[in-house]
């Protein structure tokens, strides 16, 4: 390669490896369905520069590895499975410098009939997507992050937006009480992976989203802005889960505007707080990343 050039990034792997794992414990079965991406970076570039394939671990072999490790070790969580795969690629192949694994889960939940959980029947329930990514360099610790993606939520009160900048560009009135709807996406990074109960972390984050968005079932929780709701969620996550180093949250607005019915006398009221028009574009998009200071004590 010309001395004036250098690699910025390179790697190859298998995308969209679909797998369903069934754990059978007598009559009770448990399923995990994932879509897995793998990517490897080798310590040589001769496959690129000279067409020499002698070091390439074929992408088909990477696909087969997903199935073989699932068979031999089982699947408990996307995080544990990602770590298993990345560790395998680095320990099996000494010429692999970096292994990256992405996992997306398919959200199945057990069917409940007359208050009883079914032994072996499940319902596809796409309320939220559970994802994770692990990147590990040879000689380094695995860098792991989990994603909570696409959780659409709405509440009909306990939300306001007032006292924002008023100038010649403003047309939006103060809203003392409004519908708050969004699609929550959160990603968090771990400062360690050993001894972490990833399933517990996932359930804790779900509960925190409910707590900071919805609040108690009878009275809810007041939100003066999307920004404040995001911060309260991030702050709570860092406080209760010391294994997390930072949290990124994005909450785009899903607007619902009151329909103007004032021109229709048969409605009987000039105030409409029951009929709304869903509007998805344009939409506000609010995001933030909150992390621990480098010298903070866990």
UniProtKB/TrEMBL annotation:
O2 binds at residue 253. InterPro entries: Uricase. Belongs to the uricase family. GO terms for cellular component: peroxisome. GO terms for molecular function: urate oxidase activity. It comes from Halocaridina rubra. Keywords: Oxidoreductase, Peroxisome, Purine metabolism. GO terms for biological process: purine nucleobase catabolic process; urate catabolic process. It is found in: Peroxisome. The active site is at residues 14, 59, 255. It catalyses: urate + O2 + H2O = 5-hydroxyisourate + H2O2. 5-hydroxyisourate binds at residues 60, 161, 178, 226-227, 253. Urate binds at residues 59-60, 161, 178, 226-227, 253. Pathway: Purine metabolism; urate degradation; (S)-allantoin from urate: step 1/3. This is Uricase. Gene3D superfamilies: Urate Oxidase (3.10.270.10).
